[in-house]
């Protein structure tokens, strides 16, 4: 009798243990995902750039002063970093009044120098143009003078040829007279007749 109770007690413990295992399996398969040991599952990973546990990223409201990125204000329409204008500092975006004054002065000085060089170049160009015009007129005059000299040269050469022909003719006549009369020039009254430079007989 005691052996049967021990067996039956053992069977009861095994049934109770099996019931716990089945109960643990049912819990592990439930939608809550709680394991039989009672430990909680790890939390889901957070999305990047978000402090909220939800998966949606936080979007700042329009017109708010919240900063979306480091150094950039979401309320600034131009999307420029804050340069501290409220403190009176101009930053890098705009030059100072002194810089503008110095730049204006240097620009005016450079402009005056450019105007001076421009005037010098214009005067030099005008002088060269006048010189070229004078040289052109001189060249035209020289061409005319050359033509006149050429005509004069041609005329002189022609007159020289005529004079040479006349001189040759006179010498030939004198030789013929000398050959025909010999020394009878005195008898025929030829004494005193001289040959002039102009080629004419007196």
Describe this structure in words.
The chain has 202 residues and is mostly helical. It contains two helices and no strands. The protein has helices at 2-28, 97-181. The chain is rod-shaped.
Estimate the global geometry from the Cα principal axes: rod-shaped
Which structural class fits the helix and strand makeup? mainly alpha
* Fraction in helix: 55-70%
The number of helices is 2
Please name the defining characteristics of this protein.
single chain, 202 residues, mainly alpha, 2 helices, 0% strand
Helices and strands, with pairings:
Layout: H1 2-28, H2 97-181
Quick description:
Residues 1-107, 180-202 are annotated as: Disordered. The protein is an all-alpha fold.
């Amino acid at each position: 009798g005691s052996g049967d109770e021990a067996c039956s007690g053992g069977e009861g413990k095994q049934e109770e243990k099996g019931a716990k295992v089945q109960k643990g399996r049912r819990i592990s398969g439930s939608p809550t995902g709680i394991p039989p040991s009672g430990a909680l599952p790890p939390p889901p990973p957070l999305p990047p750039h978000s402090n909220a546990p939800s998966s949606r990223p936080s979007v700042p409201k329009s017109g708010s002063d919240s900063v979306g990125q480091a150094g950039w204000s979401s309320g600034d329409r131009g999307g420029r970093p804050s340069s501290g204008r409220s403190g009176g500092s101009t930053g890098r975006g705009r030059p100072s009044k002194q810089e503008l004054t110095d730049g204006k002065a240097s620009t005016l000085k450079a402009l005056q120098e450019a105007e001076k060089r421009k005037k010098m170049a214009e005067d030099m160009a005008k002088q060269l143009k006048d010189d070229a015009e004078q040289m052109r007129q001189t060249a035209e005059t020289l061409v005319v003078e050359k033509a006149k000299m050429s005509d004069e040269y041609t005329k002189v050469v022609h007159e020289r040829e005529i004079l040479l022909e006349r001189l040759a003719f006179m010498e030939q006549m004198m030789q013929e007279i000398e050959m025909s009369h010999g020394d009878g020039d005195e008898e025929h009254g030829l004494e005193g007749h001289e040959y002039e430079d102009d080629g004419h007989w007196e």
